[in-house]
């Protein structure tokens, strides 16, 4: 089989996808029309010939990302968004996903937390019933906002604890270290949530942020985190603890000018549980298969290693034991 057929057929798990990052221009138009709201400026100014978003780093990406989501207003919007993404994932033979959402990006513009969570949940349940795809939900805090807002969001989400497996940290990393949220993560753990944090590639304080999430916060996983290759002690620590990394080749190549394929492979070969994921597929133009093929394009990776990346994903996933038995 060709490499693309091989990748397409491989059973996969996706552990790093922002549901708001699956909002395609065409879904944006659909929701704007249905809710009688204007098409966001960032979408209106798209290059209409290619219908593609334009950005060159994390802040410029985030500006478009937050602007576009203003069309998400009702539980039905969130349900439809989740359903569209999970159909796409299913079509690529993704059996299990762990999906981030950014509640503060919605509550801060007047959409209630129950609307967001109940809408997402409806989409997840529908996809589980109709497609057999399983999904865990991860609630992210926006690190460029105040920790008090994150704490209030955590407390407001407690009634939905059974639907949310973990909490995370995303948005603009510059001068927003994980330690800023130490109290929030401590409380989240006490409430029974697992913890993961974004340590985006090539940030101002990448290594210090990775150290903080491992030593000060005590995360169960790291999102991106590829810069860990620069610090042998931290690499030994994730190996010792069996902590996995959710890497995103296409996204990383937008945020950094230095593609991280070589580093991902180096970590894989040294026994770190790295995985490949899509991050914001509607924006970075690539779902799971495209990200795996991109890695294979840029680095010498064997088919056995591509299989190992998926074994890692199922292993470091938070899939229920019951489903793990069905899938594996
Ligand atoms: N990095 C940080 N925050 C984000 C991202 C990302 O890649 N995607 C959505 N929010
Ligand atoms: Zn991400």
From TrEMBL:
It is found in: Cytoplasm; Nucleus. Substrate binds at residue 280. Its main location: cytoplasm. Zn(2+) binds at residues 16, 18, 198, 279. Its cofactor is Zn(2+). Gene3D superfamilies: Metal-dependent hydrolases. GO terms for biological process: adenine catabolic process; hypoxanthine salvage; nucleotide metabolic process. Residues 11-328 form the Adenosine deaminase domain. Binds 1 zinc ion per subunit. GO terms for molecular function: adenine deaminase activity; zinc ion binding. The keyword Hydrolase applies. InterPro entries: A_deaminase_dom (IPR001365), ADE (IPR028892), Ado/ade_deaminase (IPR006330), Metal_Hydrolase (IPR032466). The record marks 224 as: Important for catalytic activity. Keywords: Cytoplasm, Hydrolase, Metal-binding, Nucleotide metabolism, Nucleus, Zinc. It comes from the Eukaryota. Its EC number is 3.5.4.2. PANTHER family: ADENINE DEAMINASE (PTHR43114), ADENOSINE DEAMINASE DOMAIN-CONTAINING PROTEIN (PTHR43114:SF7). Belongs to the metallo-dependent hydrolases superfamily. Adenosine and AMP deaminases family. Adenine deaminase type 2 subfamily. HAMAP family: Adenine_deaminase. This is Adenine deaminase. It comes from Clohesyomyces aquaticus.
